[in-house]
Amino acid sequence: MDRRRFVAGAIGLCAAPVFAARPDPVVATTKGRIRGRREAGLYVFRGVRYGQDTAQRRFQPPRAPEPWRGIVDATAFAPSCPQRAMQAGTSEDCLFLNIWTPGTEPSAKRPVMLYIHGGAYANGSVVDPLNDGRHLAAAGDVVVVTVNHRLNALGYLYLARLDPRFADSGNAGQLDLILALRWVRDNIAVFGGDPDNVTVFGQSGGGAKIATMMAMPAAKGLFHRAITMSGQQVTASGPINASRRTAAYLDRLGAKPDALAPLLTMPVARLIEGLEATDPILGGGVYMGPVLDMRSLDRHPFWPDAAPQGNPIPMMLGNTLDETRAFIDPDGPLLRGLDWGNLAARMAGELRIDLSPEWIVDQYRARFPDWSAERIFYAATTAGRSWPGQVIEAEARARADAPTWVYQVDFQSPTQPRRGAPHTMDIALAFGTLDAPGSFTGTGAGARAASAAMMTRFVQFARAGRADWPQYRLDRRATMIFDATSRVEDDPRGWERMLFARAPYIQSGS
């Protein structure tokens, strides 16, 4: 697509025609007919069921819906998965997806872009306004799909070693996503999409879920490109550690490991309360994520190498420059009163690479003598916590000669300057939802330029399976920098990459 046409579409959607006089669209899926809406030139379907109510089959693989008669309305968002985060409208009956498409003619064969939300494996929802697909679908002439699925204990509580009925419980949330991708394969053509050109993209936990699916045999062939946005999964949770977390969770609930029947009828709110259990490995709230169960996941996604199944899939990996500025409040206790005397101690608990924090501070101060303690704190915690997974994945794919492209978001928040380019910055830029609640981007010219550059590249990648900058190779490490003026740099932050490569990276939850 011509970039000038794309940019004009991305920032001029208010001029799009409205077809209010025409009837709302009705589409026949493999299970029955659904009715959507026409909105600003698009056909929009919200709350499309791809799986049965999971309340009747807790901790078990999802099932496809039963066929229905008549026409079911798909005009409003359906519930999200129950969770500890503040989220309106939750239910165990949460296996629904949403579709924005420029047209429903099957002959169009538009690229399909399926988005998986962040929130680690515990929280989040695609009903968040940041994830609205209308701008991306209209400007890129693509079909955008967003998916909700099971999270936390409902999607990842590992019970396989306690009860054979729940052999797949540690990866139930992943199996939900695979079921959604099967639904797309079987149905997306009648929404104008090409089932043979599906790009999965996801931010934070969504990217990690994608990286995990690249090693899951059941996902093979269901998607054809992948984009991970500040979300990696080098290793999954081992079954022994997962079992220790399960024990802590059950103890919090007062449940017995040899009598799990009460879990099947317990109010879902009580199951969510159990997540307050202390994690026996990491501390804090108990972690739950994909498990190396030797059933649906029989190897780690990127250890000891990139899973061969995923290597033929073109992949784009990205992170933001200041990831931890989103997690660690600049006015909070770790930053309040920060100085050279306490910098090392305060950042030690935020690192995921076991190097001397005092030595790390000395290296930064020698390299960047004009940097403040706060700047070093955020740079080191980002490079030693949020970024290494992406580096490991990109390097593994480069060694396998897999088609790989890397980007970095440098665009600095004009609305919250101390946040810099934080985690989640790329969501609004990729979707064009600059004015949505939760966006750090503002709506100025710089944000619009960065967003147009990112949206254009994502759509080009979805359409052609390649980006317009050099592939990531170990001799150059070419990286697209998304900013008010975007550009390509070789090995940006290479010094930090090498600094933290001196010790192993331990994936949280492993």
Topology:
Blueprint: H1 3-11, E1 26-28, E2 33-35, E3 37-39, E4 42-49, E5 71-73, E6 96-101, E7 110-116, H2 134-140, E8 143-147, H3 152-156, H4 172-187, E9 193-203, H5 205-213, E10 225-229, H6 239-253, H7 261-265, H8 268-273, E11 315-320, H9 343-348, H10 357-367, H11 373-386, H12 388-399, E12 404-409, H13 425-431, H14 445-464, E13 478-482, E14 487-490, H15 494-500
Parallel strand pairs: 2-5, 7-8, 7-9, 9-10, 10-11, 11-12, 12-13
Antiparallel strand pairs: 1-2, 3-4, 4-6, 6-8, 13-14
Walkthrough of the structure:
The protein is α/β, with parallel strands linked by helices. The chain has 2 domains: 204 residues, Rossmann fold; 188 residues, Alpha/Beta hydrolase fold, catalytic domain (Rossmann fold, 3-Layer(aba) Sandwich), CATH 3.40.50. It contains 15 helices and 14 strands. It has an 11-stranded mixed beta sheet with strand order 3-4-6-8-7-9-10-11-12-13-14, sandwiched between helices. Strands 1-2-5 form a 3-stranded mixed beta sheet, with no helix packed on it. About 2% of the residues have low confidence. It comes from Sphingobium indicum BiD32. Pfam families: COesterase. One of its GO terms (molecular function) is hydrolase activity.
